[in-house]
Amino acid sequence: MALFIGIMSGTSLDGVDVSLLSIEKQEMRIIASLGLPMPNPLRQRLSALHQGHTSLLELGQLNEELAFLYADAVKKFLEKQNLKSKDISAIGCHGQTVWHAPQGDFPFTMQLGNHQLLARLCQIPCIGDFRQKDMAYGGQGAPLVPAFHQDVFFSPQWQTAVLNIGGISNVSLLATNCPVLGFDTGPGNALMDLWIEKQQGKSYDKNGEWAEKGQILPELLAHFLQDPYFQLTPPKSTGREYFNLSWLNKKLQNFGASVKACDVQATLTALTAECSVQALKSWATEDKPCRLLLCGGGAKNQFLRKLFQKALPHWLIADTSLCHIDPDYVEAAAFAWLAYRRWHQLPSNLPSVTGASQAVSLGVIYYP
Prior knowledge:
Elements (H helix, E strand, L loop, with lengths): L1 E7 L6 E10 L2 E11 L2 H10 L6 H25 L9 E4 L2 E6 L6 E5 L2 H8 L3 E3 L1 H7 L9 H8 L5 E7 L2 E7 L6 E7 L2 H11 L8 H5 L4 H8 L2 H4 L13 H8 L8 H23 L6 E6 L6 H10 L4 E4 L10 H14 L7 H4 L9 E3 L2
Parallel strand pairs: 1-4, 4-7, 8-11, 11-12
Antiparallel strand pairs: 1-2, 2-3, 5-6, 7-13, 8-9, 9-10
Helix pairs in contact: 2-3, 6-11, 8-11, 11-12
């Protein structure tokens, strides 16, 4: 039996998630997971990067600080599980995305977190830089989790959509006799979190309670949805460098100060739902029942879940615990799985998702 650790700190900037997978003869089991909050000063500094406010010194220091943060999470996790470094085959660490630009003359993606330092601190081989090789072969470098979703959530009885709602939402579309599709649908929690932080000083809207007190403004929602990103056809991916407070402030300029803050929050929640619902409706067929499996922090937003159920009345709406995987740790588990694939030089991207010219084994191995 081989053990692999996955580490994920997503675009919500809310914390570091760690998952442990056991894999034997390609039979996978998630043994345990752990989540640690992102220290607020570090969170604020990372958030500033998405606005383009930084220096080379700041980038370099954050790269090292994140390695220490990840190493601390791994050490606490191993201690809690009564495991030693030598028990783990490898760590798969996504790193912290600070800029993702898959379009343009020189497409690139940037994740911080010194993988070589992390390997030394943990005394475990670390696999990182997962997105780079896909982009080298002409892909978007994202999303990378649909291959994992296919492995664990596919069912021949269902048309299954897996929607991860982090800072950005990404969907995986799984159906029999069809290539796996997947892409970033648009904002997840990012805009909702930024708005409530600006208006109330809170880091997120718990259960969508504040949004539910407001009214969804149809004209404002339609204005949001006119953004060119929503008109793009897959493969496509995006990040907080695009959907950020500057984007929101610009969209609100034509609506004046008379718009209530809670109505903006309600409409932003509706935006997160609608940009995914449009994709789901165009994909689903009538020959099999459909289910939507939610994961990520947004899966806890009860108001958001009500909007999905209203928009998709004939779908089964649930979170991934329906398939015995904690919705908080799906992405961390995915990067443990991706580490396993790289460790055995197995392909781990899906060209039908990212647009890469071929399937390749993703990630670079760093030894202690």
